[in-house]
Amino acid sequence: MATVTVPETARGLLRRPTATTGAWSWLTTVDHKKIGIMYGVAAFVFFIVGGLEALLIRTQLYRPDGTLLNADQYNQVFTMHGITMIFLFVMPMSSALFNYLIPLMIGARDVAFPRLNAYSFWVFALGGLFLYSSPFLGGAPNGGWFGYAPNSTTDPSIGMTFYALGLIITGIASTAGAVNLAVTVVNMRAPGMSLFRMPPFVWMGLVVQFLLVFSLPIITVALFQLLFDRRWDTAFFDPTRGGDPILWQHLFWLFGHPEVYILILPAFGIFSEVLPVFSRKPLFGYRFLVIATILIGAYSFTVWAHHMFTTGAVALPFFSIATFIIAVPTGIKFFNWIGTMWGGRLIFPTPMLWAVGFLYLFLTGGLTGVILGSPPLDFHLHDTYYVVAHFHGVLVGGSVFALFAAIYFWFPKMTGRRLSEALGKLHFWSWLIGFTLTFFVQYQLGADGMMRRYADYPSEAGWTTLNMISTAGAFLLAFGTLPFLAAVVLALRRPADQPADPWEANSLEWATASPPPHHNFDSIPPIRSERPVFDARMAGTEVPGT
Fold first, then answer.
1. pLDDT, tens digit, for every residue of 66-107?
2. First-to-last CA distance in the chain?
């Protein structure tokens, strides 16, 4: 067999980083756990910024004739708010959890391509910083997070050029991370872990990676076309020269509807881990939940045009029926979760509270989406605050509630410290009440005809009281985040004292120390189901790491 001699200089270049402490260990790391933590910290910083932008929006709309922002500033703020929360918070925070947890959950020592993992994080950070450099270099994007043409192609400011380039950069990061995690799950599972013995969170992560790989090229093509129209006078979206602005909507929503499930499937995985642990029962209908997840992933590419009913350019009956059908596998998951809780020995630490809050808020957000799947109702409600309330019901009541549940649940594993239950419960109730005040009144505002994306509204329309309630709720959400920040600071000031499995949980990440060592595991228990740690505990055998 032929052998290859690696030059000494190349060996040094390819050697894994050796620093284990200090800032340099974080800057050069290829350890999936440290990269996951860096993803999480960076994403949370963007979450704070996006939250401040939301407060600016709601302060402007507190009363008619608001003067805090002029129309162009308002457009920039609501555009950056949407971009930030979707592309710079929910997606990378989900990546943080996938990076940290998936190798641990499948019994691997790291991801398949550690350097590619580090590359994806640093490209994401570059993309976020690039987007936020725009206000200092000529103006932030101002065409909405959806970037509809021809407004986005003809606007003379530089903001939408930053939009196109910034999302291309972050898309490269997401694609690299998706390929890496998909290969990790397919090829690096521990002996005995067949596909139908993987934890639900890993299944959700695997489907998300495939959605990213197949959907991101679509939006990348659209962004390059947008960039060419803006900078080199092409005419992809210019109807006066043979282009078609509706083409942008088709391309954007062909990406955008799978993107909805890229954002929400991690939440489904989180709650499918949290609910069984605190119900003291196995997940009800595990295989049905997995199959429903696969169906959602595949079917999500068939319903994009329900965002386009009012264009007159899509087949209304087909996409309306398709929208109703895709609600079915999500409904199956609700029966999985309710069946898991039914008859269980329920306890309600902070992660469980976020899970139960999710069931209430996501159900209302999802059902209002089914309403929007009816073309006659959509014609009335399209581009009103009803859509704002629905969208936030799904992504805040769903994704953000899930991410907070995940932090409270896995924080002991990641740091060896547990977050304060008292502060966690204060955080939860502030958010549950604040969310209800902020967004439930917006359903009525939309039904009454208040249009979204406007910087002002007439005083005689009768919308002032509901807008004041919505703004008060937004500030409650903001102040309700302070107990969480305090809980994190206080926990990190204490020495690590948590055992390997403080919750009496189910999956493999709880079979190693808290926090895990660099190599993740000294040994792992036998894997005979999707709950190997539970199985070992019930068999009376010692769980490694505990």
1. 999 999 999 999 999 999 999 999 999 999 999 999 999 999
2. 45
Query: Count of domains in the chain?
Result: 1
Going by C-alpha positions, the residue among 477, 470, 479 that lies closest to residue 58 is: 470
DSSP H or E run through 285: none
At 384, phi and psi to the nearest 5?
-105, 175
Model pLDDT for residues 395-410, shown as the tens digit of each residue: 999 999 999 999 999 9
DSSP 8-state secondary structure symbol assigned to residue 34:
H
3-state secondary structure of 358: helix
Regarding pTM above 0.85, the answer is yes
Kindly report the number of other CB atoms within 10 A of residue 11's CB atom: 9
- Look up residue 484 and give its amino acid: F
User: Any idea what the CATH number is for the domain that residue 340 is in?
Assistant: 1.20.210.10
Q: Are 55 and 478 within 8 A, CB to CB?
A: yes
Q: What is the residue range of 219's domain? A: 30-538
Residues 6+ apart with CB under 8 A from 16: 30, 114
Answer for the pair 409, 273: CB distance below 8 angstroms, yes or no: yes
DSSP-derived 3-state class of residue 111: coil
296 and 223 Cβ atoms separated by less than 8 Å: no
Helix axis angle for 421-447 and 350-372, nearest 10°, is: 10
